[in-house]
Specification:
With 625 residues, the protein is α+β, with helices and mostly antiparallel strands. The chain is built from 16 helices and 18 strands. The strands form 4 sheets. Strands 13-12-16-10-9-18 form a 6-stranded mixed β-sheet, with no helix packed on it. Strands 3-2-1-4-7 form a 5-stranded mixed β-sheet, sandwiched between helices. The protein has a 5-stranded mixed β-sheet with strand order 14-15-11-8-17, with helices on one face. The longest helix is centred in the N-terminal third of the chain and has 48 residues. It is globular, with a radius of gyration of 34 Å.
Length: 625
């Protein structure tokens, strides 16, 4: 008999499984949710893979573009514009590929994802900016370069052909505007929360754009200004002022010689020359000099040609020089161009040696020493010195105007001189002056612009002689927030050294030492230094060796100014430290401009060597709060 193992009162299976403690079925209760999650995961994996692969390819495309960019730079410098054009095409193809890889809908959609999104946006922005530079800056400029060959800019038989420059103006203007847009887009990227490799790449690109930017602006400004300055719209007259850094003035040196240059439809001619000492002085100022300028630098600025540039504000100094010239000789002046013998030395690399009427052979290696030292050993009469300077200027101008000049070296020399503030330009025409404003050529007071605060250090000779040939200068500066209210403290250290020989008072000519005329012992150097703080800041202290140092405090166009005097015997050196309290929110990154000086040891300086400013780490314990 079979045995029934079922409990007589057991409920059906379905009911039994529903009871507490009953075994559960292995069958999934929500299969739809499961497959949705699987689908989402698959999509995420796909998106990550898609973006990862495309990001890698975009990065590789941009990396591969670097050799093409380098090739363009070297080809343009060598004058091989055909090769530069081919490289520009290669560059565009790479950047265009990077843009395509980083601008598809999936990439753009992923940009809204926290943490990841900002990195993707930054990469896309960099790719777009690179493509803008390649397509709208490099390619048009290389194409325009075929019309503006460096050799076409040279003076041939006293004339420069303006037609190719004028033809290129629209393309260059568009390229300059496009570069500004690309540069601004990269500058605006906040890198604080980005991945290290992304932030590092953006930093490198910013560095490249920062380096290239001044050159793009210089080209754009030159193409815009040159035709008008060279008389395309009618004749113009410019004063060419030779600054002598052996007797320093804030903009570079005493105006020792000055010439009137006439331009008309590209033709350039030398009209008149004069020694600076032959113009003026006047009993009262002949030009409108701002009261703040007179308060800091005295009433001589508007009365003596040699003192017109005691102020570092070149537009003020140049307009004063212009008024002095027209008061003396009449006529109309369209602008003033200032330069020094270091620029002349660089120009001689493009012309080759020039033989002077006196028999001297003026070269790039001996020009500075011959014009700033030897001439005073040879001639004790200032009139003979002035005649020598005039003959040198005429000889070099004659060589430049007859042609046969290495135009590439000429343009490079002038560009470097402009960056070093050894060439300064002021225009009486408002449109031209607006173009110049903000460039190093304008010689304006230091500007505080994002992301830096402007500081200036300027030197004026107070020896009354030519001893600054032996003066060495150096500047170190830094800024740091040391206060609870967030206002940065800026410290500027200025060091002066007299490198004249120990027996300078006895062996150097009286005209060089001053002979004690102004109370300075022969051989010593007295310098009046003006340190300008960031606009809107306050002068906090002027010290030397930890103690207060005598200073004249003032304000020039919202800049606090500390003016102090340093007198040094041969071999002596002194450092003076000036502190400023910046306005709240101002940058601790500094942009420092200085008077271009000489090395002090008789050597020919590199164009911008004396403008180098060393960084310092501000110690909050030592600043005035």
């Amino acid at each position: 008999m079979a045995t029934d193992l079922t409990e007589p009162d057991a409920p059906p299976r379905a009911d039994r499984e529903a009871l507490p403690g009953a075994p559960r079925s292995r069958r999934m209760r929500h299969p739809v949710v499961f497959w949705v999650l699987v689908g989402i995961a698959a999509v995420l994996v796909f998106v990550v893979a898609w973006i990862g692969v495309r990001g890698f390819l975009a990065q590789r495309a941009l990396t591969d573009a670097v050799p093409a960019a380098d090739h363009i730079k070297t080809s343009v410098a060598s004058g091989d514009l055909a090769s530069a054009g081919r490289a520009a095409g290669d560059l565009r193809r790479k950047t265009e590929q990077a843009v395509a890889l980083t601008s598809d809908p999936i990439w753009r959609a992923a940009e809204v994802v926290p943490w990841v999104g900002p990195n993707l946006t930054a990469v896309r922005t960099v790719a777009a900016a690179s493509d803008t530079v390649a397509a709208r800056v490099v390619q048009p400029l290389v194409a325009a370069g075929s019309a503006i060959n460096l050799r076409a800019l040279a003076i041939d038989k006293g004339r420069i052909d303006l037609a190719p420059i004028q033809a290129a103006q629209p393309a260059v203007a568009r390229a300059q505007a496009a570069f500004a847009t690309a540069h601004a887009s990269v500058t605006a990227i906040h890198t604080d929360e980005l991945l290290g490799p992304v932030a590092s790449g953006i930093g490198r690109l910013r560095g490249v754009l920062d380096q290239v930017g001044p050159g793009i602006d210089a080209l754009g400004n030159a193409v815009r200004l040159l035709p008008a300055m060279l008389g395309a719209d009618g004749p113009r007259d410019y004063l060419l002022a030779a600054q002598n850094p052996a007797e320093l003035r804030a903009t570079g040196g005493l105006v020792g010689a000055i010439a009137l240059v006439h331009t008309d439809q590209g033709a350039v001619s030398l009209q008149r020359q004069s020694a600076g000492s032959a113009i003026g002085p006047w009993k009262t100022p002949v030009a409108d000099v701002p009261l703040n300028t007179q308060g800091l630098y005295g009433p001589l600025v508007g009365r003596f040609m040699q003192d017109a540039n005691l102020t570092p504000d070149f537009p003020v100094a140049a307009s004063t020089v212009s008024r002095m010239w027209t008061t003396k000789y009449g006529g109309k002046v369209d602008g003033v161009i200032a330069m020094d013998p270091i620029v002349l030395s660089a120009l001689l690399k493009s012309t080759g040696p020039v033989t002077l009427p006196e028999g001297d052979r003026l070269t790039s290696s001996n020009a500075v020493k011959l014009l700033l030292s030897d001439v005073y050993q040879r001639y004790s009469d200032p009139a003979q010195q002035d005649a020598f300077f005039a003959s040198a200027a005429s000889a070099v101008f004659g060589r430049l105007s007859t042609g046969g000049v290495d135009a590439a070296k000429l343009v490079s020399a002038l560009a470097a001189a402009g960056e070093a503030r050894r060439v300064l330009i002021w225009s009486a025409h408002d449109g031209d002056q607006r173009t110049l404003a903000g460039t190093t050529l304008a010689g304006g007071l230091p500007a505080s612009q994002t992301p830096s605060s402007g500081v200036g250090v300027y030197y004026n000779d107070a020896t009354g002689a030519k001893m600054d040939y032996y003066l060495a200068t150096s500047v170190a500066a830094g800024s740091k927030v040391c206060r609870a209210d967030g206002r940065p403290s800026t410290v500027v250290n200025v060091t002066l050294t007299n490198r004249a020989p120990a027996d300078a008072g006895a062996t150097l000519p009286r005209y060089v030492t001053g002979g004690g005329t102004y109370g300075v012992p022969p051989g010593s150097i007295r310098t009046r230094v003006a340190v300008y703080g960031p606009a809107g800041s306050l002068l906090a202290a002027t010290q030397s060796e930890g103690r207060g140092y005598a200073t004249v405090a003032g304000v020039d166009r919202s800049h606090p100014v500390s003016v102090f005097t340093v007198e040094l015997a041969p071999g002596a050196s002194q450092t003076v430290s000036v502190q400023f309290l910046n306005s709240r929110g101002s940058s601790t990154k500094l942009s420092v401009v200085t008077t271009p000086t000489l090395p002090g040891d008789g050597s020919t300086p590199d164009m911008g060597a004396q403008n180098t400013v060393a960084p310092i780490v501000v110690q909050c314990s030592s600043v005035v709060k």
